Amino acid sequence: MDKLTTHFDLIILGASGFTGKYVVREALKFLNAPSSPLKIIALAGRNPQKLSQTLEWASHPHPPPPVPILAADTADPPSLRRLAAQTRLVLNCVGPFRLHGEPVVAACAESGCDYLDICGEPEFMERMEAAYHEAAAKSGSLVISACGFDSVPAELGLMFNSRQWSSPSVPNRVEAYLSLESEKRVVGNFGTFESAVLGVANAEKLMELRRSRPRRARPVIPGPSPPKGPIIEHQKKIGLWAVKLPSADAIVVRRTLATLTENPHGLPGVDESAEQVKKRETFWSTVNPAHFVVKIASKSIFSIFGFITVGMFIGLLGRFAVGRWLLLKFPSVFSLGGFRKKGPTEDEVRSASFKMWFVGNGFSNSAFVAQGNKKPDMEIITRVMGPEIGYLTTPIILIQCALILLRQRDNLPKGGVLTPGIVFGPTDLQERLQENGISFDVISKSALSA
Question: Residue 181: beta bridge partners?
Fold first, then answer.
């Protein structure tokens, strides 16, 4: 497919969903804006009336622009192939991806159309890599999942912390602490909860998939593997209680680090200039791999007990069909009010924000490790901070990834099923996010007491 002769710059699939309508609103900010590559877009889905209502909502208080509405259904592969043939890029907002995502990936990988989604489901992402990487690489289709809050803040946040370790210092581990903050109680949308439940249901399938595939390269990280530590942690430096979060973030980061280990200079662009090659290689030379884990955090230990309780409900009931039915029938009950089918109100969304602290521990001199010093003696704390995660931060990230892909396509890999970190790491994505309300800050650099 000739990407320069396609009709649309991008098509938003599933635009009338909870997150999809916010993605439309974010995209309209850049439609025909000065220096924006976004000139013509379309909305796609099963219900044209709902898509028209979404366009009106997203355009308010202005009249809706002339954006075409296209019929497409994830249960109708020919409609998806027609969609992919008309555009340079598909933004897929139809979840859960385990149930609805594969036909869209297949259509894009076959046609050569690029694909971004906001998936946070590890089993789906790794299955798509196994099934479609070669086809996408051959057709020139970039298929990139997790281009929302899952998992760009984690990926770029780790890289940002890692790059603060100037030689001869090196990190050993980076622990991310996610704190969700709001003046009001924010309720998550049902799709996120459903994805978590399906993630538990498919955990064994993910293990089987990994066992069936060749083992990926593991990065060489100076020093010993970090100890497991207590189940509930009090991180005094940032004043938060925390418990490990079984999210997709750490898994996506490990996939990025594995690709980087196999390709130390990153992945070459489809038509890079010599200047861009040097820029990419210089960037990756400053990224130090580290052990990485994500934890959910709060100033209140009682909130941590709430997180643990919800995790136990999902972990125990999600393994059985009857248990999954109960979880999905009564999400508000089993999430202790954290999720509901109607999603949050506009006021709740506007009142919410997140802080993601990255506490890096390592060695002030890499030579110390070779001399037998196994205890880190240096700490660097950084932070990523932004608005509500699901409806504001996720659309910001997805649209900025899309703009980079449209503007800088020659500098990106030809194709394949890849992680956002390995594709967008050497681009100006961090700077773009900072310009759109997501900040990256160095909080402290200090020596650790012996």
Answer: 353
d(C-alpha 153, C-alpha 17), whole Å: 23
Position of tokens 């990487």?
A: 133
* 417 inside domain: no
Is the domain of 230 the same as that of 364?
Answer: yes
Instruction: Work out the number of other CB atoms within 10 angstroms of the CB of residue 361.
Output: 21
Q: Are 130 and 100 in contact (CB under 8 A)?
A: no
Per-residue DSSP letters for 16-71? TSHHHHHHHHHHHTTTT-TT-S---EEEEES-HHHHHHHHHHHHTTSPPP---EEE
3-class DSSP assignment, residue 267 = coil
Helix, strand, coil distribution of the chain in percent, nearest 5: 45, 20, 35
| Residue 344, preceding peptide bond in cis (omega within 30° of 0) | no
Tell me how crowded residue 219 is: count the other CB atoms within 10 A of its CB: 17
Residue 263, classified by CB atoms within 10 Å of its CB into exposed (0-12), middle (13-18) or buried (19+), is: middle
How distant, in Å, are the alpha carbons of 66, 147, 407 from that of 152? Answer: 31, 6, 19
**pLDDT tens string 351-380:** 999 999 999 999 999 888 877 767 899 999
> Distance between CA atoms of 48 and 126, rounded to whole angstroms?
32
Residue 383 · residue 356 · CB < 8 Å: yes
C-beta of residue 278 within 8 angstroms of C-beta of residue 296: no
Of the candidates 103, 118, 145, which is a domain's last residue?
A: 145
**In this predicted model, what pLDDT tens digit does every residue of 250-275 receive, in sequence order?**
999 999 999 999 999 999 999 999 99
Owning domain of residue 112: 10-145
State how many domains the chain has. 2
| pLDDT, averaged across the chain | 92
Same domain membership, residue 199 and residue 127: no
- pLDDT for 450 equals 61
Does some domain include residue 232? yes
Give yes or no for a contact between 14 and 42, defined as CB atoms under 8 angstroms apart.
Answer: no
Same-domain status, 74 and 185: no
Domain-embedded: residue 278: yes
267-270: which pairs have CB atoms within 8 A and are 24 or more residues apart?
Answer: 267/413, 267/418, 267/422, 267/423, 268/413, 269/410, 269/411, 269/412, 269/413, 270/140, 270/409, 270/410, 270/412, 270/413, 270/414
Looking at this protein, which amino acid is placed at residue 369? V
**Rounded to whole angstroms, how far apart are CA atoms 213 and 224?**
27
Answer yes or no: are the C-beta atoms of 446 and 379 closer than 8 Å. yes
